[in-house]
Amino acid sequence: MRTASFVLSAVLLGAVLTSCDDGSKAAAEAAAKDLSSGLSSLDVSHAALAGTEASAAQSQLKGIVAGLGDVKPTVTSGQATTSNGTTTVPFDFSWELSGREWKYTTTAEVDQSGGHWAVKWSPGLLAPGLQAGEVLELKTTAPPRGDILGANDAQLVTERPVKRVGIDKAKTPASQLDSSARALASLVGIDPAEYAKQVAASGPQAFVQAIVLRDVPGRTPTDEQIAAVPGAFALGGTLPLAPTREFARAVLGTVGDATAEQIQKSKGELNAGDQTGQGGLEAQYDDQLRGKDGVTVLAVNQNGASSQGGQASASPSPSSSAVQPRALFTAPAQAGTPLRTTLDPKLQQLADDTLASVGPASAIVAIRPSDGSVLAAASGPGSNGYNTAMLGQYAPGSIFKTVDSLALFRQGATPDLKVQCTPTLTVDGKNFQNATGYPEDHLGTITLEDAYAHSCNTAFISQRDKVSQAQLESAATSLGLAIDAPQLGADAFMGSVPATAGTTEHAASMIGQGQILMSPLSAAVMAASVQKGGLVSPRLVLNAGEGEQATSAGAPASATTSAIQSASASPAQAAAKPITPAEAAPLQQMMRAVVTSGHAGFLLSVPGAPVGAKTGTAEFGSDNPPKTHAWIIGIHGDLAVAVFVDEGGLGATISGPLLTNFLTKASQ
To answer: According to the model, what pLDDT value does residue 266 have?
Structure first.
């Protein structure tokens, strides 16, 4: 519960208008309008007030709204009416209290005072039926937060038991505070000196939280170990959590206390101590997941008890504290709406586990080609919380030869096309060569399929004059690259393929370098489009917009629910021509050849449907030898997967085993 009080005195505010004093209706309405404007801005310091000095009234007004922070009402006055010699004007009030609107109308009596029109004030003007000496008390109740669900509505993020571990200063002798704080910090694995400072700086009755632990079987430290530290306690509770700390963390985000910045941006919907989304889907869909606070506005006597029968208690008796407050407004809490996603719990956990020991930034994305569902989007520990899987922007290297091949097919080529694979190739003074370890027995005149299977860079660069940069871009969009992903419902980078390029840049494009950029998500989309034989548009969030979804105070303002890249889409990208089954068939054949005769033979061990693949190694930076990104894409039945490791060496040797592990266990 949070409580804010508005103290209304017996003598409230008056307003005087210095214009017409002839008793006209227009003058009465003008006086009321001036007052409503002052109340809306919470500034009556310059008003001419009847019966109260402006300074006293302003001080009184500040006291009334002090508990609301920056919240101000919207107040408008209506038309004046006269009955039996009395002129009245309605005042319409609207308050935004923790995201709930409290609207009501009061009636003000307007009369002449000292030759000028003024409003006659009473407590009932500011709230319905309010009496002198009463206090308005605001109580809010947080609603249950909506779960994030996965495939078949499996609970991904839901309330799970936790233990809040910390030092209770009220139950710890002052002489033991420092030693207890340091001992507890060492026990739970946080900085002892820093935690000791936090404990010392907190109030004498404070419970100073050190850490929140998942309350699962086998948890360490145990309650007994914690209790052995003088003054330390483990308080039970629940928090919205995923199955494990690492589970799709970069995609899902977390839930935590609202920051000062989030509170400021929320326009009154968030207050100190509220739980809100921190990153990922939890932040992007916070409005939908968080629901609406329950709000009650009570009228209570300023001495702590409500008035009886509308009469204020001048001298509260011992029994007056038992009188129930009088509710003026109630809005029940609205539970958050669950967010449904396509993530498959088994595959997501498998992807996270597969990357658990990878040092550099890394990612695995798995998509179901038949409907575009994102089944897993994992970013490894080396990503340090960044969503490498969906937002990473990296040169794709040779996996982009899939785009080259489609562009060549559209110019009449076939997998049997004879091409020249030379050790090196120079274009306008720029020397290109094959990856380290390229087999010498596949040099010379070979087929396009063989060049794809063994990833001959020079063979593909030699075909640069047969496809323009614009045709490469068109082929890329046909496979889902560099175009919007309108069904995704989450922030993503879908790739960047320029429509124009110089001679050497175009040659670099043929091997996925130069200005070509992809994310692991877009690489998986490309593979999925080949496997489907049609353009795949990825989807992750299934019910965006239920509840009141909008970018919340906690969400990044720059993101939309489609591709971040799409804002700069060219006309060719906007008019993407989807790949056809006939065009996909030879690509599927060539991806299979990478496994059966190329350098991804390790995938032959994967059980089930035949596996197709393409490896990629992309150089970057100025080191000698240069660092490389390691890629591999794979197709296996109704599954398309992309694996990426930054600074990873060769795609076949670094990312290949990760894909093998993932596909093998996914088949079990």
So the answer is: 80
Confidence tier at 303 by pLDDT (50, 70, 90)? low
Residue 281 is encoded by which pair of tokens? 């889907």
> What six digits make up the tokens of 321?
């504290």
Q: What is the pLDDT of residues 158-213, one digit of tens each?
A: 999 999 999 999 999 999 999 999 999 999 999 999 999 999 999 999 999 999 99
Q: Quick one: pLDDT at residue 308?
A: 44
In the chain, the amino acid numbered 347 is L
Give the Cα separation of 490 and 375 in Å (integer).
Answer: 14
Q: Which domains does the chain have, with CATH numbers?
A: 3-141 (no CATH), 148-292 (3.90.1310), 345-384+398-543+559-666 (3.40.710.10)
Burial of 79 (0-12, 13-18, 19+ CB in 10 A): exposed
* Interior angle at CA 450, CA 448 and CA 452, nearest 5: 70
CA distance linking residue 324 with residue 299, whole number of Å: 10
533: left (phi over 0), alpha (psi -120 to 50) or beta: left
Residue 580 has which token pair?
């056809």
pLDDT score for 643? 98
Alpha carbons 522 and 519: distance in angstroms, whole number: 5
At 167 the three-state DSSP class reads: strand
Using CA atoms, how far residue 347 sits from 150, 237, 361, 378, 667, in Å, is 11, 29, 20, 10, 10
CB 385 within 8 A of CB 250: yes
Tell me: pLDDT of 82 over 80. Answer: yes
State the distance between the two ends of the chain, measured CA to CA, in whole angstroms: 49
